[in-house]
């Protein structure tokens, strides 16, 4: 890859944005100019990239004809407001906010290799799957030679960083208030999340589903290549700062061969299988890592046709930033 | 109920034991003498009951012929060591530790009413179902006229008080250490549980199942009256002091009628249904309450034949102590 490109990073001052900057440097991505963008409030801050301090600028005034690729990591509203202008400028877009419908911006799983990006035309618009869809899809892809489930059930225990910086601050503040027996104030969430579990992320629709759960199901159907896959999902917020914990169950029509499942997981790309008896955790294993950690591989407790497993994964790094950079690496190989 | 009985309470100084003492008083249980028992370490402490201070005595020296009923809330080993002597003394036993096989000490769900205790003979030995089995069984019982699932999937996010007083102390200490940036020590659990999720409770067997998960499945099969029910269960520990959070999914062969489910839950004994759009939490709703709180009633996100719901329940009170006293109330009505 001798060519280099100009890149815009929208949401540079956020958790995901900062991880993106780090990864572009770490992985020696062929960047020529890197434009760091955020809201006007943080314009003027700076971030270090390849030994230089880069100024953060306001997204509002930015001209996307200067760049060939833009990462969007600044929330749904920002992507929705800008994606048309970005395309009109001839710039490709990798969205991390799950703002665009999957038919407009299909989601891509780098673990599927070059096939993952087939059929896309430049300037492309792609979606980075949500962190728990990524983790599950990596596992489903690994097991595909053995198991094509008819139903999957996911219980995703998401860390508070799912809500960005304000979520992390909220958990820290609430915890300190409770430990010091001060009255509890709530800001980024509407109730106590410290030492508690919140049953949903954001509002739910008439049918009771959160946006995130619907997106997850659609992404899993697309990424697994099983459009008819029945999906049940409950995404909750736990009082954990970083790292997602997932209990995944897959229903098959035949008895599950656990030894064969373990063999596939041991050698799969992107997965670290933790030995039987032990288990991975978000904080102890996954955070800061590029791999999806899998453990507790077993049949349903009284259901031999069910596969249960446990996944710990870094929502900011593997779940978002790394994935986005890996997707960009695949795409530039083909299209630039 | 004009008769009164003598009662022994084993594990009186624990969380569950203290809740039992409170409930026996609150519900005006026909107790004549109450014998509070614990290990020799806490012998000599005292607890208040009906305005008097009762001394805690050592279990070792206790003569069970003095009592007609004994509650055992002091762990698996204590029940296993004493249950035969208790029976030989002609004393009935209500076990809260899940120590006895269900064929020896069937589990009883008070919500099933008088039928729940049919066929038992005095001196009886019964098991109080584990807290999450109780919560799920109450819901399954309420839905029985509409839905007899072929498969249920439970993800139980259990509070650290599941491990008793030492668990509660552990979470408090770990949290304070982390907030004060002191090095983390682990005692009651083998790794960081503050701001983390632990994927299993206790050790797992060769097949990967924890004792608690197997017990839960067996209890659910017995309590639901569906011995062939396929059960998948993942019980994890979350950094919450009190109150369990359960994500429950039930698989049916036909599309789920959500309105009918809601009607049944609204009027069911022992259940508080939270209105659509809102949801209950362990800390905000369930702790200190006698009811099982249910919310997020919905179909699978892409699976109309699945019912998903969310349950918050007090593991110490409804999940253990209240249940035990309700069972005792049913039994003494018939057998004393
Ligand atoms: N956190 C995760 O686990 C995760 C995982 C996958 C995807 N994502 C997605 O990634 C995005 C960022 O998440 P995060 O966790 O990094 O959130 P965050 O820490 O709260 O950061 C949000 C970023 O968006 C910027 N921003 C907000 N409003 C803006 C506006 N009107 N114009 C320009 N920039 C604006 C912020 O800039 P200022 O500093 O100027 O406010 C900041 O850089 C979100 O879409 C999120 O859904 C997050
Ligand atoms: N916590 C829950 O959520 C929950 C729910 C349902 C059932 N349970 C079951 O209820 C039981 C008690 O749980 P917990 O949460 O109350 O635990 P806990 O707070 O740790 O209390 C344990 C109790 O058992 C006593 N004990 C321990 N070893 C003993 C021995 N060798 N001889 C006599 N007494 C002994 C302790 O007495 P000392 O003070 O002398 O040590 C204390 O009274 C356990 O079997 C547990 O599985 C607990």
TrEMBL record, chains A, B:
GO molecular function: aspartate-semialdehyde dehydrogenase activity
Keyword Oxidoreductase found: yes
Gene3D superfamilies listed in its UniProt record: Dihydrodipicolinate Reductase, domain 2 (3.30.360.10), NAD(P)-binding Rossmann-like Domain (3.40.50.720)
Entries under CDD domains matching the protein: ASADH_C_USG1_like, ASADH_USG1_N
Superkingdom of origin organism: Bacteria
InterPro entries per record: NAD(P)-bd_dom_sf, Semialdehyde_DH_NAD-bd, Semialdhyde_DH_dimer_dom
EC number: 1.2.1.11
Pfam families: Semialdhyde_dh, Semialdhyde_dhC
Keywords, sorted A to Z: Oxidoreductase
Ranges of residues in domain Semialdehyde dehydrogenase NAD-binding: 6-120
Membership in a protein family: Belongs to the aspartate-semialdehyde dehydrogenase family.
PANTHER family linked: ASPARTATE-SEMIALDEHYDE DEHYDROGENASE (PTHR46278:SF2), DEHYDROGENASE, PUTATIVE-RELATED (PTHR46278)
Protein name (Swiss-Prot/TrEMBL): Aspartate-semialdehyde dehydrogenase
